[in-house]
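Question:
Write out your own:
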Amino acid sequence: MAAAGKAAGRGPLAGVRVVELAGIGPGPFAAMLLADLGADVVRVDRPGGAGLNIDPAYDVTNRNKRSVLLDLKSPGGPAALLGLAERADILIEGFRPGVAERLGVGPEDCFDRNPRLVYGRMTGWGQEGPLADRAGHDIAYIAITGALGMIGRPGEPPAVPANLLGDYAGGSLYLVIGVLAALQHARTAGEGQIVDAAIVDGTAHLTAMIHGMMAAGGWQDRRGANLLDGGCPFYGTYETADGGHMAVGALEQRFYAEFVRLLGIADEAPARKDAARWGELRAAVTARFKQRTREEWTAVFQDSDACVAPVLSLREAPAHPHLAARATFTEHGGITQPAPAPRFSATPGALRRPPAQPGADTAEVARDWDVPALTEES
């Protein structure tokens, strides 16, 4: 217990050193996750910024990190970066293929200095293939994997799921899994390696269950026609009297029975297994939900197992009683933001530092990591 208390707030990755070459989107989020878990993440910012049009003080994906300012195109820039790589466990970069090599900070340059280094490469298209050198964004990556095409209502264009599905689920999380797996290998075998985390690969991987269902004949390859894509009347969203929405996920029979009972349509609802009458069932559910406000329906279902929840906005979510009780969101530095996740019983993570300001920690990192060339280049 004493050891657990001593580690409290440091996270399970305390002692792991990570170099992040500044970028936008999935790379910074992956590095934030590692930092939330306790890693010492040094973000290498470039003069002029990484291109994200946001005040650095509000960019929570840079929380728990320290920043150094380094121009990799300057004469001494690559050497200073290699000094960090020599002392790091993990390096993350999100350049197009070949850019890091041309700058003199590619995998082989780093392995020459640190053969145990895990070199994480975060891209949309991957390191090879016909599109590897092309520009792209989340929406294009998820488009070609089939994931975007399965989201939305039939007869309407696919619905855009912000950049959560590609950048973060298919990109950042797979990069984190990859570099941590490679770190385990490096620590047991003494051998570093390259982790090629492509958003197209990760997003395609996320559709594994759907491909299995399709092969078994349990999924139609079109939008809004299946159990989990809004085609099913007891798995979807419904508008309420005040223009709000409720989310329904009453898939299992016992949950569905409670759902129709509390909704008040148990006596009129057609058999749920009769897909030919799903349109009729949807109409009944739709009409009933429009008779009360979102708040009223929330009160009806809140103590039940009907699997119904209000659809909240980003500003509303932190005040939800369950999320508030779990402290799922927190306030740090005047910014309401998601708390570190997941949770650990012995080595919990914590918000230790506000978003890193570009170059603000150069001298501190140069001292702590023993890389004096950083201050010479900044």
Remarks:
- The longest strand covers residues 40-45.
